[in-house]
Amino acid sequence: MTANDDAHRTATRALKQLAREVLALDDDDVVMVSELQCHEPGCPPVETVIAVLGRAERQQYKCHKPLAEVTRADLEAAVRTPHAH
């Protein structure tokens, strides 16, 4: 495991915890975080997708930046944006 892998795991855990706080999730809710690269025209080069499973329906939020750069303000903005999920 490299330092980069360790930093990515740490950032992933931190973002999952942040999502639990911002979304007021239950312990039974599953939070998945993915950093995706997009190669389609008009798509940001890297986006972070936060998906929540366990409620009545799946919820999904997108932040148009790398996972390690997503802040509480970014996540709160994604939650407020109707077409983000």
Sheet with most strands: strand arrangement: 1-2-3
Helix content percent band: 25-40%
Shape: globular
What's the end-to-end separation, in Å? 33 Å
Could you characterize the architecture of this molecule?
The chain has about 80 residues and is α+β, with helices and mostly antiparallel strands. Helix content is about 35%, strand content about 25%. It has 2 helices and 3 strands; from the N terminus they run H-E-E-E-H. The protein has helices at about 5-20, 70-80, and strands at about 30-35, 45-55, 60-65. It has a 3-stranded antiparallel beta sheet with strand order 1-2-3. Strand 2 (about 45-55) and strand 3 form a beta hairpin. The termini are far apart.
In short:
This protein is an alpha+beta fold.
Topology, please?
Blueprint: H1 3-22, E1 30-37, E2 46-53, E3 59-63, H2 72-80
Antiparallel strand pairs: 1-2, 2-3
Give a quick set of tags describing it.
single chain; 85 residues; alpha+beta; three-stranded antiparallel sheet
